[in-house]
Design goal:
heterotrimer; B: 365 residues; alpha+beta; five-stranded antiparallel β-sheet; C: alpha+beta; 2 domains; elongated
């Protein structure tokens, strides 16, 4: 009986391992990828072209407003670019030394600092934005230090920059920390014996090897800032960045203009991605002139220590404290207003006792968010694993690079633009299969979390030595049998890590959700609603809840990935 | 050029000992080999000399000047690593010119020196190649050129040939020594390979567990190993245990019913172990007995023979026990298994050590 | 019946990297053959071609007259042993050994008896229920071998199987491995960078260089009668004397080296042709010039260095033509040679080899 079952299992796996079947499988994998991720974008592009007339009329030649729509688009894009540029500069200036500290120094609390640096990535940006608004923009936060009645900054460009700095910060640090840690220290030793000072070595030997990672991190930080919605909605006020404009036009049902703006944003992001992927290796730092004395001074202990202290201080001032300030705020407003002591203004009343019973909304939204995240995670694991395997095993380097680049698309394009394309394709303007609501949110989330799932899995597959596959094959195991019996056991922790990443990302998304949600509410969106209704203590309650969930997820992720390293 | 002294150098990594109380003096233009197994403190010593580590105690002197506190980048030590450590993203020539560039030297002079080094080391034509485009042997040659062109007056090499194929290793040993001598550099070369140390060096320092256990010319060290450890590290040996007998100015080791003439100061009755290096255990055919001039000649039986290139590795039974012998190929000796042969040794071939409790323990370790 | 046959096998990677060129050889049933050669010589590629992890660009491979060059590794039924073991860490020793028969769908009782036999054969039956991470490197390699034995493969391919083991354990393992192969009646092909290992463990050794087979023969063939310059150079140590054949006798040939004429082995090179005489460094005998010796077959020279190495001594001698050659002598050789002392290098013609002069010079023949 057992033998019979095993034999038929082996036979099935053998059939599945046939080249034709595998090819079909690959085709399906790519098909799904196109349908979920590329499809909406291509459809948007297609629509822009065929309905150029409409767009021309609304965007450039409106009978009343003329090309005002286009001009405001340009203004919003310009503002987005300015903000993204400032933010990226900060991220690099503080993030690179921070990565160096985390990779190279051993000190007490290093692990905690490491987790703190990653935290803003896991926390939903709307919660983050709210917290930052409270810290910088109201009289509850920093302004208390100098006893001011108003906040340090009002809603607007400066506040947007503060918010974006907080959630983009981890991207640069994270993308080079690992590379710096893996750099061969012996090369630096070699440089030293040849007479180079530490700064010269870092500049001439180490940095060129970190270059690709740094560029990738920079692009991520830049595009994330360019495309963020949740936090921006909260801190922007009337200053409107491009993704926020998409959301607000969408709410006003200005479909053709929204389509056009989404399209421009997507094109810009793709262009950036392509440029970086093409030139990352080629652009060198052929800066061979050395100033031995000056560089030696820069290497001195004093300069190094000052730089490290500054990086850590700036991190805590601009990233960490503002990001978590909401928790303090929550306690301030727990049972009533800290200013007037009024009970009705406090969190307890607003959430649990007021007639509108916000706690019910919160629970419903939380359940919706969890359901969505769960479905999205499961679906993505199913469709991402074969894709990751395919890319990892691909022999044709050019094709591999191309596919690998495509995978990054959802990572760089603004989620509101992506959400809009999905609405456009699946909703009444396109296939007309779905209307905004639960299912559409799920599809949007699958789409933009796809990369978050595929990327770590590719890494996991790459890290499994090919000799195990070869060993299994030498004993006659078919490809699928080898996958089940050998690869899968190695992959366990990689799958868990990918699942947590996907889950967290889905839980925290705002921009795409707003566009595709209809009457459904996820918890980050509910937070924005609370904010707009000025019920801050309730918003703080929801934010803290989200931060706690993300924090738990992050710790889980670290435990899983660390165990993998030990094994 | 430089005279190097290590004065009572000690290095601890936390509680773990790297090296302890190292005293070494290397004359200007001398080639020293530091010989020892993995973990004996070789790399630590190399790093200390180059300033890549600083000692917990002791002083390092270049030409009598204390450089203990001088950072690595100011010591002018050319360092050659086991794994080459060429900078991966720049070509061979840029690797070699890295030193002159970061030191702000006159590049046109350095280019000239680099060109000469490339041709001296048989890598001319590889200047524009990137490290991943050349073989291991070529990489190590580039690394050597890089160390020398940086104006080094002391060359420090940390097991530089370990990662290379045997054939290249053998060729480079000769090249290395010739180059160092031609440029009259002072050189310190760590290796785990006894033959390599003997082949390249003027002097050898044998390391064990972070300390120097013996120092001298290759011949001194080989002929008078100070301990069983050193004797075994220098090559394959067989141990014979017995009792010392001093008789009429001659010394013997008594093994039950056999008397072997040896050289020793130990008193009669002392329990001792005599080591016979395999290459000194000579084998001759029975018919040669009359012509042979050895102190000890005994009949033996060959139990196995294998040819591993330059030597026959032979196991034979003599003195009632199994003895390992190495015979250079090319000597007409009947080495067929089961053959009766003569096993011949001189009294000076045996390295004799008294058996003490500690030494027994040491052996077990 | 020949067990493994390669016929003009060529493997080109990418567009132009010729890893293996026109390779043909036969390995007989039950033979233990080692492949040696400098890194990049194609030995590993050859092993992979036999395994089927890569397929040849041209040529045929036969196992027992069955053409297999287009079969993938799955269908060749070979046993492959890796340098880094490749045993499955999530399976016990027993389960590792059972992997082969299991994925081939064998009955439980058959699997049990195959695994039991295999674990006994490699002497690891006492650790059957342990997981690899709790074992040591030699046990990992034993597990890998047990896995191969249980799979009933008759061809064993070994890729530096002892490379990750310590020197001492390596030497014990060599004997263990050879005994196992012979007892199980396998045909084994073993890639190694360690010449002594190859010469000790195998029936025959194949020397490869630049993707080609240079010589296939027994250990003593390679050491005493190499049939080309590269083998003489690569296996052990030899010096190469450029010469011209002057005379061509039944037992020996007379060649001119610089100003001297010496007798060497006659290997059929015609009179008047250029030749390369290869002499192993152990086969030269070195004498003071003033010593009278009977056999006057010698080259004169001056000593450059007499180096004591314990294991032996190396005397470097500069010949009249300025070439430096090296002689290996016993450490206790009665005479110590002084630098610049005149010496005779006496040569026994029967120990020499005499090869045709390569078109592009001796150096080109030694290129690796």
């Amino acid at each position: 009986m057992e033998v019979k079952f095993r034999k038929s299992l082996l036979a099935t796996e053998k059939w599945l391992s046939k080249d034709t079947v595998l090819t079909a499988g690959k085709a399906v994998t790519i098909g799904i990828f196109i349908l979920i991720v590329l499809g909406p974008i291509l459809y948007l592009l297609f629509q822009i072209i065929i309905s150029w007339g409409d767009i021309n009329e609304t965007v450039f030649n409106d009978p009343i407003l003329g090309n005002e729509a286009f001009l405001s688009m340009l203004r919003s894009i310009g503002l987005s670019f300015e903000i993204a540029a400032v933010v990226t500069v900060f991220d690099i200036a503080v993030g690179v030394p921070m990565a160096w500290i985390l990779a190279r120094y051993e000190f007490k609390g290093k692990n905690i600092l490491d987790t703190f640096v990653d935290l803003p990535m896991a926390v939903p940006t709307s919660a983050l934005g709210f917290s930052i608004y409270l810290f910088w923009g109201t009289n509850n936060g920093i302004s208390r230090l100098y006893n001011s009645e108003v906040g340090f900054a009002s809603q607007g460009t400066l506040l947007i920059i503060f918010a974006h700095v907080a959630f983009t910060f981890p991207y640069v640090t994270r993308s080079i920390k690992g590379i710096i840690a893996d750099l061969d220290l012996n090369l630096e030793k070699a440089g030293k014996t040849l007479g180079a000072s530490p700064f010269t070595i870092a500049r001439m030997i180490s940095l060129p090897m970190v270059k690709e990672g740094l560029l990738a991190g920079t692009v991520l930080a830049f595009t994330r800032s360019l495309g963020e919605t949740g936090a921006t909605l909260i801190v922007s006020g009337v200053y409107q960045t491009a993704p926020v404009v998409i959301v607000s036009w969408m709410k006003g049902l200005k479909i053709p203009t929204t389509a056009f703006l989404a399209f421009i944003l997507i094109i810009i992001s793709l262009l950036l991605l392509t440029l970086v992927r093409i030139f990352a290796r080629k652009v060198g730092l052929p800066w061979n002139k050395v100033f031995p004395r000056f560089e030696r001074k820069l290497s001195s202990k004093k300069v190094t220590r000052t730089r490290n202290t500054f990086s850590i201080a700036l991190f805590f001032l601009f990233v960490f404290t503002p990001a978590l300030f909401v928790i303090i705020f929550l306690f301030q407003w727990w049972g009533g207003s800290p200013f007037s002591g009024e009970f009705e203004a406090g969190m307890i009343y607003q959430v649990f006792q007021a007639p509108d019973k916000k706690i019910n909304d919160i629970v419903t939204a939380l359940v919706t968010s969890l359901e969505i995240a769960l479905i999205v995670t499961l679906v993505n694991l199913l469709i991402a694993t074969p894709m990751a395997l395919m890319i990892s095993k691909m022999k044709n380097k050019k094709l591999k690079g191309f596919l690998d680049g495509l995978i990054d698309i959802p990572l760089v394009i603004p989620s509101s633009a992506l959400g809009f394309s999905i609405f456009f394709l699946w909703g009444s303007n396109g296939l007309h299969i779905l209307s905004p609501g639960f299912a559409m949110i799920v599809i949007a989330h699958i789409s933009f979390t796809y990369s978050y799932c595929v990327r770590p899995l590719i890494g996991s597959f790459d890290s499994i030595s090919t000799m195990y596959d070869e060993a299994a094959a030498a004993f006659g195991a078919s490809k699928i049998t080898a996958f089940r019996t050998v690869t899968l056991p190695f992959l366990k922790s990689g799958l868990i890590a990918a699942a947590i990443m996907t889950f967290t990302r889905s839980m925290s998304e705002t921009g795409a959700t707003i566009i595709c949600m209809g009457i459904e509410r996820t918890i980050p969106v509910l937070l924005v609603d609370f904010f707009e209704a000025s019920t801050f203590p309730a918003a703080a309650f929801a934010s803290t809840l989200l931060i706690i969930i993300s924090f738990v997820m992050l710790i889980l992720l670290r435990v899983v990935t660390r165990r993998k390293k030990d094994a | 050029m430089v005279k190097l002294e290590l004065d009572n150098i000690t290095k601890y990594y936390g509680k773990r000992r790297g090296v302890e109380n190292i005293n070494l003096s290397i004359e200007d233009g001398e080639y020293l080999a530091v010989l020892g197994p993995t973990g004996s403190g070789k790399t630590t010593t190399m790093y200390l000399v180059a300033g890549l580590l600083s000692p917990s105690e002791g002083k390092i002197l270049f030409n009598g000047e204390d450089v203990t506190k001088v950072p690595s980048e100011d010591r002018n030590v050319g360092f050659v690593f086991e794994e080459y450590n060429l900078f991966p993203r720049i070509n061979a020539e840029s690797n070699v010119l890295f030193g002159p560039i970061v030191k702000g030297l006159d590049l046109s002079d350095s280019r000239q020196v680099a060109r000469e080094m490339f041709s001296l080391l048989n890598i001319a034509g590889k200047e524009m190649n990137f490290p991943d485009e050349i073989s291991g042997g070529q990489k190590q040659r580039v690394a050597l050129a890089r160390a020398i062109v940086s104006n080094a007056n002391l060359l420090v090499m940390d097991d530089p040939l370990r990662a290379l194929d045997a054939k290249i290793r053998e060729i480079l040993q000769v090249e290395l020594r010739n180059l160092v001598k031609d440029l009259s550099l002072t050189c310190i070369h760590a290796t785990h390979d006894t033959q390599e140390a003997m082949r390249v060096a003027d002097k050898i320092a044998v390391f064990k567990d972070g300390a120097i256990v013996q120092f001298g010319t290759p011949e001194e060290v080989y002929n008078n190993p100070v301990s069983i450890y050193v004797a075994n590290f220098l090559g394959e040996t067989t141990e014979l245990e017995g009792t010392i007998l001093q008789e009429k100015g001659q010394s013997f080791l008594i093994l039950e019913d056999i008397k072997i003439e040896i050289v020793t100061d130990l008193k009669s009755g002392t329990k001792a172990v005599a080591l016979i290096p395999a290459e000194l255990a000579d084998i001759h055919s029975l018919s040669e007995r009359e012509r042979l001039n050895y102190d000890n000649i005994i009949e033996a039986e060959i139990i196995s023979t294998k040819c591993v290139g330059e030597f026959f590795d032979v196991d034979l039974i003599a003195f009632n026990q199994e003895i390992k012998a190495k015979e250079l190929i090319g000597n007409d000796v009947p080495l067929t298994e089961g053959n009766k042969v003569l096993f011949a040794t001189d009294k000076g071939d045996f390295r004799v050590f008294p058996i003490e409790e500690d030494e027994k323990n040491e052996k077990e370790i | 019946m020949p067990e493994i046959r390669l016929q003009s096998v060529t493997k080109i990677f990418g567009r132009k990297v010729e890893a293996v060129k026109d390779l043909s050889f036969i390995i007989e049933d039950g033979e233990y053959v080692s492949l040696i050669g400098p890194s990049g010589c194609g030995k590993t590629t050859t092993l992979r071609l036999l395994a089927g992890t890569i397929l040849p660009t041209q040529g045929n491979i036969y196992f027992d007259d069955k053409s297999v060059e287009n079969l993938s590794i799955r269908d060749r039924n070979i046993g492959f042993v890796f340098q880094h073991f490749a045993i499955f860490p999530h399976l016990t020793v027993w389960e590792n050994a059972a992997y082969g028969p299991k994925v081939r769908g064998r009955k439980k009782s058959e699997i049990d008896s195959l695994v039991e036999h295999a674990l006994k054969a490699v002497q690891i039956d006492d650790k059957a229920d342990l997981y690899p991470p709790s074992l040591s490197a030699p046990d990992w390699q034993k597990t890998a071998l047990a896995r191969v034995v249980a799979s009933e493969a008759k061809i064993l391919l070994l890729d530096e199987p002892l490379g990750a083991l310590d020197q001492k354990i390596r030497e014990e393992f060599q004997i263990f491995l050879r005994d196992l192969v012979k007892k199980e009646g396998l045909t084994a092909i073993h890639v190694t960078h360690d010449q002594a290992e190859a010469l000790t463990i195998s029936d025959k050794v194949a020397v490869m260089n630049k993707g080609k087979l240079v010589q296939l023969g027994s250990a003593s063939d390679l050491i005493f009668t190499p049939n080309n310059i590269f083998t003489s150079f690569f296996v052990g140590e030899s010096d190469f004397l450029e010469s011209v054949v002057m005379n061509d006798r039944k037992d020996f040939a007379e060649v001119r080296v610089g100003q001297s004429t010496i007798k060497v082995k006659n290997m059929g090179i015609a009179r008047g042709k250029r030749a390369v005489v290869a002499v192993r460094r152990e086969f030269f005998k070195v004498h003071k010039y003033k010593d009278k010796i009977k056999k006057e077959n010698f080259l004169p020279g001056v000593v450059v260095r007499d180096q004591f190495l314990g294991l032996l001594r190396r005397v470097r001698v500069k010949l009249e033509n300025q070439q430096i050659v090296e002689v290996k002598i016993h450490a206790k050789h009665p005479i110590r040679f002084k630098v610049n002392e005149k010496v005779r290098l006496v040569i026994d013609p029967s120990t020499t080899r005499c090869f045709e002069y390569p078109e592009k010079g001796v150096a080109s023949a030694l290129e690796m």
